[in-house]
């Protein structure tokens, strides 16, 4: 995805302290979820973490699941399954668009022959 096409929700610009305030999670909890590979903040040259609004939504979802007793390993499995599903859907969308383009081209060629 082109940088200009990315949503503001994807931009990693929020500090860990602000994320903590917004989510109610402690800094320790946020770092733990990063260690467990549930979240992947951007790190600058000095090691400062930066999060996106999507990361905040993910952290809130993780916190809700943890409150329901779901283990982090299960959350990670679910997240990976969802990512694979999105990748498959994206590939399917590309295939559909290519097929539609071929059909449109074929239809235009036939109309031109009539």
Q: How would you concisely characterize the structure shown here?
A:
Helices cover 65% and strands 6% of the residues. The chain has helices at residues 16-23, 27-35, 53-67, 72-113, and strands at 14-15, 42-43, 49-51.
Protein described:
The chain has 114 residues and is mainly α. It has 2 domains: 1-70, Orthogonal Bundle (Multidrug-efflux Transporter Regulator, Chain: A, Domain 2), CATH 1.10.1660; 73-114. Helices cover 65% and strands 6% of the residues. The protein contains 4 helices and 3 strands. It starts with 13 loop residues before the first strand and ends with a helix. The mean pLDDT is 89.
Per CATH, what is the topology of the largest domain?
Answer: Multidrug-efflux Transporter Regulator, Chain: A, Domain 2
Unreliable stretches covering 5 or more consecutive residues: none
Put simply, the count of helices is 4
What is the class of the largest domain in the CATH system? Mainly Alpha
H/E element string? EHHEEHH
Please provide the count of β strands.
Answer: 3
Keywords: DNA-binding, Repressor, Transcription, Transcription regulation
GO molecular function, one term: DNA binding
Biased composition (Basic and acidic residues): 81-96
Protein name: DNA-binding transcriptional MerR regulator
Keywords for this structure?
114 residues, 6% strand, mainly alpha, DNA binding, MerR_fam, DNA-binding transcriptional MerR regulator, single chain, elongated, Multidrug-efflux Transporter Regulator, Chain: A, Domain 2, three-stranded antiparallel sheet, DNA-bd_dom_put_sf, 2 domains, 4 helices, 3 strands
């Amino acid at each position: 995805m082109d940088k200009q096409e990315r949503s503001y929700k994807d931009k990693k610009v929020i500090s860990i302290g602000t994320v903590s305030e917004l989510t109610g999670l402690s800094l320790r909890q946020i770092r733990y979820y990063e260690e467990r590979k549930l979240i992947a903040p951007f790190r600058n040259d000095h090691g400062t973490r930066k999060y996106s609004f999507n990361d905040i939504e993910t952290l809130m979802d993780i916190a809700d699941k943890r409150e329901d007793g779901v283990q982090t390993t299960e959350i990670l499995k679910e997240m990976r399954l969802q990512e694979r599903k999105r990748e498959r859907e994206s590939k399917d969308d590309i295939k559909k668009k290519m097929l539609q383009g071929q059909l449109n081209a074929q239809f235009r060629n036939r109309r031109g022959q009539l």
